[in-house]
Design brief:
Chain A: Belongs to the binding-protein-dependent transport system permease family. Chain A: It holds the Pfam family BPD_transp_1. The complex is a heterodimer of chains A (388) and B (249). Chain A is mostly helical. Chain A has 2 domains: 155 residues, no CATH class; 219 residues, MetI-like (MetI-like fold, Orthogonal Bundle), CATH 1.10.3720. In chain A, 76% of the residues lie in helices and 3% in strands. In chain A, strands 2-1-3 form a 3-stranded antiparallel sheet. In chain A, α6 packs antiparallel against α15 and α9 crosses α11. Chain A starts with 6 loop residues before the first helix and ends with a helix. Chain B is built from 10 helices and no strands. In chain B, α3 packs parallel to α6, α3 packs antiparallel against α8 and α5 packs across α6. The radius of gyration of chain B is 21 Å and the shape is elongated. Chain B starts with 6 loop residues before the first helix and ends in a 6-residue tail after the last helix. The chains are: A mainly alpha (388), B mainly alpha (249).
């Protein structure tokens, strides 16, 4: 019997082999800003665990390389990801000299490449399994709980990113709250304003091109400039409109960031509302009119439910985009995870950059998965109703 | 995204934009009201022209690299040889788009240091996705009868790709490039937070010295460039579509 190779497996095996045997697994630094020195897996882990991890990687490479059943590949990729997560924590404890609080151990390129290779394998399995939306949500939940448990157990406490966290635990959660409030609040405001505006643009053709053009041009203004331009007008409002400063409107800080995110969010919401409503079949509208529905009944009972999946797609774009853009708010004193990113860039302390960037990426990623699942659920629900 | 400007207005605006980039001094009275305490109204820490050219250069290099890689990858996964990668590449594009540009930029710094390089990497990776996605759409939604006819006419796989499949999907691919360029133009400004020479320098100088005039002129130049490049690529797309007997909505 001829041995058949999996083409993706070849790519994964090449990355994993390079990462496991040639690239540094962890970086050791005497303090947080000096350049580090890389350590290979065997030097970074205590006696038994190093060879054990290498053996696991070799097994996984073989499984990935050959045409193996999906279940094997699923098990192997999950086992490897968990083993890597535990191993990097152990490397932290092993490499840090006892009692030394200045030394920093952080994951190096080998670790990240191994994570990438086996995430690729896992992503391929999950894509090929064509999971239903509920199962995808469950997988996300399990992954989140697993990461939460690892964080709570203290297994990663000796890693540099968590040492940065330990120094900033209170500000971290305050900035996290600000980040989420900015991203979700501006989304909510954009939905409250954008939905009626979209409906209006759908009904009144004269408005459509004008409104969409203005919103398009706003999108081309770079985010840092838009944030900056709003400082002036909002500062003026705070000074001259009675009560404005009492509710937190100021020239710098959260207010201009909120308004900028709101303005960026309007286009996807309005445009998708217009596209969704335009896609409602004529027959459905005619039938509703024939049944004697009023304009309002037709909108809320027929048009809106049919356009809902398209509108949700717009909301998904906005949410993912806002979570990313909210990092820029830090440049104008608006807070959020960007505070750590830009402080870290300023101090060339990359662990601090990671402390800001990793939660942002995780948040955007989770938001994308959750909304994708919801969109699919509403779309299939709609289809079932149509069949019934 | 549709930007309709009457042709005459468009030319006037283009002339104004170029004039402002080359001779910003002429426009000083316009920006004076935005400054306080006699601060300079026009960016004075470097020439706007060279920053604009560097900005466009950075975007161009990243976009060209992204076009080459994205289209090659799209061709690869739509051939029988690479078909195994097709489902995975679709989900990777989906996942990739959730990565915020700032995070990509900041994470590239430890790998390659400060300056142009992290910006180029972030722009390249971020620009890759829309082009790849559209190239994939273009190459997988070709009318089956046309592809069959090409095979029937005795074309080799290579001829079929170069003479039928790529020209037919060109308008869709161009739309992806347009999207990618507009995103990159705005994202390049963030590159200045890691010391890349782009128009973001002007904006950040304004934010640091509390000078609204700098922020507005940096923002206006980038937005202006984006609108005109968008417009130009849109026209190119229409030409490509007309040659293929399609219409661009």
């Amino acid at each position: 019997m001829a041995i058949r190779f999996d083409k993706l497996g070849v790519v994964i095996a090449a990355i994993a082999a390079y990462a496991a045997f040639l690239a540094p697994f962890a970086t050791f630094r005497a303090n947080r800003i000096v350049p580090g020195e890389g350590r290979l897996i065997l030097d970074a882990l205590p006696a038994v665990s190093g060879p054990l991890l290498l053996a696991l990687v070799v097994v996984a490479i073989v499984v990935a390389l050959l045409k193996t059943p999906l279940a094997w590949r699923l098990v192997v990729s999950v086992v490897l990801l968990v083993a890597l997560a535990l191993a990097i924590g152990m490397a932290g404890g092993f490499l840090t000299p006892p009692g030394n609080t200045f030394a920093r151990v952080s994951p190096a390129s080998g670790f990240w490449l191994l994570i990438f290779a086996f995430t690729l394998l896992l992503a391929d399995v999950l894509t090929r399994l064509e999971l239903s939306p509920f199962v995808r949500l469950a997988v996300l939940l399990i992954a989140a709980v697993a990461v939460g448990m690892l964080l709570a157990s203290g297994a990663w406490d000796s890693l540099s990113i968590l040492k940065e966290y330990a120094n900033r635990a209170d500000t971290f959660w305050a900035e996290a709250r600000k980040h989420v409030t900015l991203a979700l609040g501006s989304l909510l405001a954009a939905v409250v304003v954008g939905l009626p505006l979209g409906i209006l643009c759908h009904r009144v053709e004269a408005l459509r091109a004008g409104v969409l053009n203005v919103l398009n041009i706003i999108q081309t203004i770079p985010s840092i400039a838009l944030f900056g331009m709003l400082i002036g007008p909002l500062g003026w409002v705070a000074l001259h409109v009675p009560g404005a400063s009492a509710i937190g409107i100021r020239g710098i800080g959260t207010a201009p960031a909120f308004v900028a995110l709101f303005l960026y969010s309007l286009l996807p919401v309005v445009a998708n509302t217009v596209v969704g409503l335009a896609g409602v079949p004529k027959a459905a509208n005619e039938a509703a009119r024939g049944m004697g529905m009023t304009d309002w009944q037709r909108l809320s009972g027929v048009e809106f439910p049919l356009a809902f999946p398209v509108i949700l797609t717009g909301i998904r774009i906005v949410l993912v985009q806002n979570i990313g853009l909210a990092t820029i708010a830090a440049l104008i004193g608006g807070g959020g995870f960007g505070v750590f990113v830009f402080q870290g860039v300023g101090q060339t302390a990359m662990d601090l950059v990671l402390l800001g960037a990793v939660p942002t990426v995780a948040l955007a990623f989770a938001a994308g998965i959750v909304l994708d699942a919801i969109i699919e659920l509403t779309a299939t629900a709609r289809r079932k109703e149509a069949v019934a | 995204m549709k930007v309709f400007l009457p042709a005459a207005l468009r030319i006037v605006l283009l002339v104004l934009l170029v004039a402002f980039i080359v001779y910003p001094g002429w426009f000083e009275p316009l920006f004076k009201p935005l400054t306080e305490n006699n601060a300079p109204a026009i960016y004075n820490q470097g020439s706007l022209l060279s920053l604009t050219l560097q900005h466009l250069g950075t975007v161009a290099v990243a976009t060209i690299a992204a076009i080459v890689v994205a289209i090659s990858l799209a061709i690869l996964v739509t051939r029988p040889f690479g078909a195994e990668f097709l489902p995975l590449s679709r989900s990777l594009v989906n996942i990739g788009q959730t990565f915020p540009p700032v995070a990509v930029l900041a994470l590239a710094v430890p790998a390659v240091g400060f300056g142009e390089k992290p910006t180029l990497i972030a722009l390249f990776l971020y620009g890759l996705l829309p082009i790849f996605e559209n190239a994939l759409t273009g190459l997988t939604t070709l009318p089956a009868n046309v592809v069959e006819a090409a095979r029937g006419a005795g074309m080799t796989n290579r001829q079929k790709l170069l003479r039928v499949e790529l020209p037919l999907s060109l308008p869709v691919i161009l739309a992806g490039i347009r999207l990618s360029v507009v995103i990159s133009l705005a994202t390049a400004t963030i590159g200045s937070t890691v010391a890349a020479k782009t128009l973001g320098e002007v904006i950040i100088a304004g934010l640091i010295s509390n000078n609204l005039a700098f922020v507005v002129q940096g923002g206006l130049i980038v937005a202006g460039l984006a609108v005109f490049i968008y417009d130009g690529l849109m026209a190119l797309e229409r030409v490509a579509a007309r040659r293929m007997g399609q219409t661009v909505s």
